[in-house]
């Protein structure tokens, strides 16, 4: 991507670069309380930067009125577009929808709960302008998150990176800027199972990392509970590594070898010491253990098979209920929507 001279001083006003468009994508699920502050802060930043911009709010099937608030805003404010999904598809799908509906030369992803400060956008643009295709925001600190969440996240990333071929950076979340090239690369990945962090890492491209302090939630509660997080972690591991399958094989080989050794030992013992019949407890223990190993292995196989099954169905990642924006924008936008995926 060519470097744009006009961007040298990103904060200079009244010198809008008409050729460049920045899209800010925000996935929203039950964030009614945070939305007004979010909008205010993002808009203030967008007005201070010298390139054209659009704010894409993706409603992920909210049930607290966020969907109506977003729709109302999009119909009033020209640079806001509302993409409302037909139900709750999860953050990964909402992000995919937002990215698919973004027309920008650069796309920034931001959480609706203001944990990712929009005030960092100029800094991200600067890094993009200096040639980065991806500007990944790394959390220096995570205020307002529990010790358990922090440590489990830490160990999860260590484990994931050890067993997968793609290096997924710790402490960088979805908060990032992507150039059009990176966005197109992401959109071209055909898989339905969209573990975003893994996909981001997979595409690679020149990346600048900027550290920031993650704020606590502005309002409401995190939509994640530990079960969800476990699910996401499992998703991450099984989407980006087949190490668990190998582990199952390894466990199988090990137990089989132990079984052979044990059989040999029994033969020798019978020859030397005769044939008493003790050993029911150890037999039961062995059977239970092996049964457990077998069930785990089958479960793992099922997990990967299930993934293949869902990919094979070729269902879209999300379904759009409607896309709303002011009329004037809609007219100019129809020309530039060539990259939308089948689901839209
Ligand atoms: N989110 C979403 N769909 C969901 C869950 C969450 O679009 O099913 C959005 C949510 O509105 C927020 C972002 O994803 O903008 C991050 O969610 P959350 O704050 O719950 O996650 P955390 O910050 O705890 O990782
Ligand atoms: Mg959050």
UniProtKB/TrEMBL annotation:
<keyword id="KW-1133">Transmembrane helix</keyword>
<keyword id="KW-0472">Membrane</keyword>
<dbReference type="Pfam" id="PF00535">
    <property type="entry name" value="Glycos_transf_2"/>
</dbReference>
<feature type="domain" description="Glycosyltransferase 2-like">
    <location>
        <begin position="23"/>
        <end position="184"/>
    </location>
</feature>
<dbReference type="InterPro" id="IPR050256">
    <property type="entry name" value="Glycosyltransferase_2"/>
</dbReference>
<keyword id="KW-0328">Glycosyltransferase</keyword>
<dbReference type="InterPro" id="IPR029044">
    <property type="entry name" value="Nucleotide-diphossugar_trans"/>
</dbReference>
<protein>
    <submittedName>
        <fullName>Glycosyltransferase</fullName>
    </submittedName>
</protein>
<keyword id="KW-0812">Transmembrane</keyword>
<feature type="transmembrane region" description="Helical">
    <location>
        <begin position="280"/>
        <end position="301"/>
    </location>
</feature>
<keyword id="KW-0808">Transferase</keyword>
<feature type="transmembrane region" description="Helical">
    <location>
        <begin position="247"/>
        <end position="268"/>
    </location>
</feature>
<dbReference type="InterPro" id="IPR001173">
    <property type="entry name" value="Glyco_trans_2-like"/>
</dbReference>
